[in-house]
Amino acid sequence: xxxxxxxxxxxxxxxxxxxxxxxxxxxxxxxxxxxxxxxxxxxxxxxxxxxxxxxxxxxxxxxxxxxxxxxxxxxxxxxxxxxxxxxxxxxxxxxxxxxxxxxxxxxxxxxxxxxxxxxxxxxxxxxxxxxxxxxxxxxxxxxxxxxxxxxxxxxxxxxxxxxxxxxxxxxxxxxxxxxxxxxxxxxxxxxxxxxxxxxxxxxxxxxxxxxxxxxxxxxxxxxxxxxxxxxxxxxxxxxxxxxxxxxxxxxxxxxxxxxxxxxxxxxxxxxxxxxxxxxxxxxxxxxxxxxxxxxxxxxxxxxxxxxxxxxxxxxxxxxxxxxxxxxxxxxxxxxxxxxxxxxxxxxxxxxxxxxxxxxxxxxxxxxxxxxxxxxxxxxxxxxxxxxxxxxxxxxxxxxxxxxxxxxxxxxxxxxxxxxxxxxxxxxxxxxxxxxxxxxxxxxxxxxxxxxxxxxxxxxxxxxxxxxxxxxxxxxxxxxxxxxxxxxxxxxxxxxxxxxxxxxxxxxxxxxxxxxxxxxxxxxxxxxxxxxxxxxxxxxxxxxxxxxxxxxxxxxxxxxxxxxxxxxxxxxxxxxxxxxxxxxxxxxxxxxxxxxxxxxxxxxxxxxxxxxxxxxxxxxxxxxxxxxxxxxxxxxxxxxxxxxxxxxxxxxxxxxxxxxxxxxxxxxxxxxxxxxxxxxxxxxxxxxxxxxxxxxxxxxxxxxxxxxxxxxxxxxxxxxxxxxxxxxxxxxxxxxxxxxxxxxxxxxxxxxxxxxxxxxxxxxxxxxxxxxxxxxxxxxxxxxxxxxxxxxxxxxxxxxxxxxxxxxxxxxxxxxxxxxxxxxxxxxxxxxxxxxxxxxxxxxxxxxxxxxxxxxxxxxxxxxxxxxxxxx
Length: 871
Known about the structure:
By secondary structure, this protein is α+β, with helices and mostly antiparallel strands. It is about 40% helix and about 20% strand. It is built from 29 helices and 28 strands. Strands 5-4-8-2-1-10-13-12 form an 8-stranded mixed β-sheet. A 5-stranded mixed β-sheet has the order 15-16-17-19-18. Helix 4 (about 240-265) packs across helix 6 (about 310-325). It starts with 9 loop residues before the first helix and ends in an 11-residue tail after the last helix.
């Protein structure tokens, strides 16, 4: 028997020899390059993975196992076969090809097998014995779960880790006593007594990409339900049976409703074998769309009694989003992660439609506006703005593609496209796209081709400015008076980047004159830079140029119109128009067209009469933003009595329980006065009730946290008592993790921050960012500012070791509450000193830096933060 090759020196020699003779490519480099992926997609097909894993009961013991990979190999050049696996030199115990030991080598994170082991133009079988890496298995004492998106599957398992090598996947999983298991395919074998542990087997799935491979195992309870002939199972770790009972019916209903809607819209039945739902307490995302086994953050689906309308809508949208992925992303998957936005855009776009029937009382145009535009604007106004579609050379950078542009801007872009093509043409194009690429892969060009064939619009030209390039148009609203006083209202489009681009879009403009109002539609087409809304009219008293809710851009009004909007928020006619006005006013604040205190006054006046919960939620969000980010501590304290009184009095006045909960949450977050803190303590202690708002254990934990941040003298005793109240072990573990960030002792807080510099202490990323948020709370400024530079210097390591949203979350939790000039100087110095920072990672720093810089300018004056600016 020939000994398998393990030295790092052998493979370069193999490649070098072949390269000399046939011009073969060099050995694979770090990550999964586009070149490697393209080569493999041409020579490998018909893949199937059969995994066999043994999970020990002790956390310190490794997970061991093997995989059998069946594939067709059609490589006329007979190059070595490259699998992806982190640290293969120490983790691989043996490799066999077609039942014979095979020569293999480890190069970077690749396991490379000599071509001589394979039968050309034929079906082959690879068997690998290995020790699984914990990197993407999210192990704890009680449970584990996989999270492989976008390129982390090979951090734990050997495979071909790229989206266009789809495979059928089956599992055999041996679990400890008391554990259950769930995976992509249907369960075909389980222990007679799950409490004793044992072997779980799962049938082969339909073809899926490696980032969608999933299993979870642990101490889970299972709830079962059936809706419209579909069977659902929910795996969870919630110990509060009343909370489960209160939510489980809605969870089943929302999933069934989303599946039914998508089947009707696409005319394609649900494409996978089953639909299990796994609720994970510490899950990094809201949800992840693994076929047959969708994972969610448990708190996102099992809501408190004090949940707001926003919470209920967010839950429904999250479920609809993940369900839409079954068609958009799972059935048809992007070829490469430069088109990852395609699966996310349709998940969010469809979710907005799916949620409608479940909430007939909600204005869903308003919901779409408030759910998408603010976050998208938060990136597109910055020098770090990125296009919807971004080039990608290597999958190890794929995590940097994610953010508000693909999740929030892209659905807006699709709404514009649907408006341009017409709803039925758009729908027919999507159906053709799904049918033509089912269980396969596709690109943005493939979809454009389908749509272009159905409509005369020049979609490639449209795509260049909306999809391929960053930024948003600046649209100035101008009144040109005529000789008799009457004139015309113009919209003038500019490119803040100075490239003279033009964004084609249709806008609905609303204007008000004394005693009357009108709306009209204007359109920028082709290279047009000016559009006329009205001619022969008097100057309007108010103008709202984004009146339909999907218009996109920085809309610049003159200061008189801005002031009129702020003063008249409560009298603006429709809910959608008030929501659109809030966006205009927030942009005006950031453009330094209105003072924060003037805007705060208008918002508080509007809150005194606002009944729409979506609008009220946007208003209280703006209140909190102004109070904490755009006021000095002295002005914040001076205005606190009015802010607190407005919010508290409104709680008692509104009839809706969910609106009361929204207002109470806003009040708790801004309390500063001694009377307010005393009331806060009395509510936490159970001595005072919040009118009409039942408080959950999580709410009381939040109250205890608020008291600690406000420096009450017995904060530690309050936190001790609150810990004893927490019965759920997962929530108690989270509380224990975050608690040092709340300490009044600066040394304890510093030790907490220092601990986060060790990747082993960052495994529960939502806990990390929650703790950082408390550490950098405005009430800790400027003391916490000394951690900012260290956190910035850690960002490359955060990107390398963390999941896809973690770098942005780390930056936001660190910088997202500051308005101090010295912090801006720290960030600016970091960016100047690091011109070599990876461009997409640099862009994420610039996005947060832009928000910081604007806060400094607004709070301390333009001279406190001069320099770069992109609208």
